[in-house]
Amino acid sequence: MSVILAFLEVPSLLKKGWTKELAVFSVLLLAGTSLCIALSLQAKLPNPVNGIRYFFEPLGKWIMAKLS
Question: Which residues have C-beta within 8 Å of that of residue 13, sequence separation ≥ 6?
Fold first, then answer.
């Protein structure tokens, strides 16, 4: 499915000269395809919320310490 989508979209992006959009399209298509393949192989994927929590929890504690 990703190959069909690429064959449909890439020529029009190249014809218009939209190289930045083509780069973003390619990265997002590659990321989505990789995740779909990993899910179909039943790979254990990390939860993105854990990464967000890892970053923001110390920041929240620091802010609460400064405010109290």
Answer: 21, 22, 25
